[in-house]
Each structure stands twice: as C-alpha cells, then as structure tokens.
C-alpha cells in the first residue's frame, strides 16, 4: 500500500524543467539522444561503466598524484560535434513549469532543433571541430 501511494505521488509530481538545453539547428530530440549516447561512449569507453565526466583514458600512475587538465566531458564532445548550449532564465523556467506536460515537452523539443531558439541565453558555442562533408 505504501509503495502504491509513493508511486501515485511521484506520478502526480510535475516534470522537472531543465535549467539548460542543447541545440543544433535541424536536430530532433532523437538526434540529441543518439549524440549523447555516442559522446558518452567516447568519453567513458565501451566498458559499460558509463560515468558522466569520466575520461576514456585514466591518468598513468597514482590517481591521487594526477593534477593534469580536465578531460573532455559529454558536453565537450557535443560542442565538438556542433551542439550549442543555452541556459533558461528563471522567468522562462517558471513559464515552462506552469505549462502542462505535453505542451512543455513540445516546446523543449522544438528548442533542440531551432535555428535561433526563442528561449534561453547562449552559454556555450559549438567548437566547430566536427568534420563536415562539402
């Protein structure tokens, strides 16, 4: 009974509104999901122990003695593949939170592939290191 009540409460809770989103003109949410999976594999390796913000190659020697540069993260990989990152302003987040789940998800999905997103502030530009066919 308690488990059922907890599940009911969790289902009634509104979906969280993200504080930022990734954008690539013309992309779809499925494209973003596939790119995130690819970048997670690139940055963590094929071992199945996907841990965000963990580098593919660990430092040589004792880990506690390593004081080198920060390794690429999934976001670094996405930026290298042409994705930009936008932060939502508090007023925009409140407006999205007031929406129903369906309209909110459609709005967020549209922001993923928008040429010029109407919400958010650009916080990270693409690195343009992606090879592109001419």
Describe the fold and architecture.
The protein has 134 residues and is mainly alpha-helical. The chain has one domain (16-47, 69-134). Helix content is 42%, strand content 9%. The protein contains five helices and three strands. A three-stranded antiparallel β-sheet has the order 1-2-3. The protein is globular and about 40 Å long. It starts with a helix and ends in a 10-residue tail after the last strand. Mean pLDDT is 76; it is low at 56-70 and 130-134.
Largest sheet properties:
3 strands, antiparallel
Low-confidence stretches: 56-70, 130-134
Number of strands: 3
Strand order of the largest sheet: 1-2-3
Strand percentage: 5-15%
Overall mean pLDDT: 76
Specify the number of helices.
5
The number of domains: 1
The backbone outline, from C-alpha atoms, is globular
SSE order in H/E notation?
HEHHEHHE
Radius of gyration over alpha carbons? Answer: 18 Å
Short summary of the structure?
The chain is mainly α and 134 residues long.
Which tags fit this structure?
134 residues; mainly alpha; three-stranded antiparallel beta sheet; 5 helices; 3 strands; globular; disordered C terminus
What's the topology here?
Layout: H1 2-12, E1 20-23, H2 29-44, H3 74-80, E2 84-87, H4 90-98, H5 101-113, E3 121-124
Antiparallel strand pairs: 1-2, 2-3
Helix pairs in contact: 2-3
């Amino acid at each position: 009974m308690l488990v059922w009540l907890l599940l009911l409460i969790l289902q009634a809770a509104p979906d969280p509104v993200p504080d930022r989103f990734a954008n690539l003109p013309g992309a779809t949410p499925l494209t973003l999901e596939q790119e995130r999976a690819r970048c997670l594999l690139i940055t963590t390796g094929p071992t199945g122990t996907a841990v965000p913000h963990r580098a593919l190659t660990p430092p040589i020697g004792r880990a506690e003695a390593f004081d080198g540069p920060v390794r690429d993260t999934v976001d670094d990989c996405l930026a290298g593949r042409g994705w930009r990152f936008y932060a939502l302003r508090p007023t925009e987040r409140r407006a999205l939170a007031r929406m129903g789940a369906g309209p909110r998800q459609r709005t967020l999905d549209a922001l993923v592939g928008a040429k010029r997103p109407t919400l958010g502030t650009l916080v990270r530009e693409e690195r343009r290191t992606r090879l592109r066919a001419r």
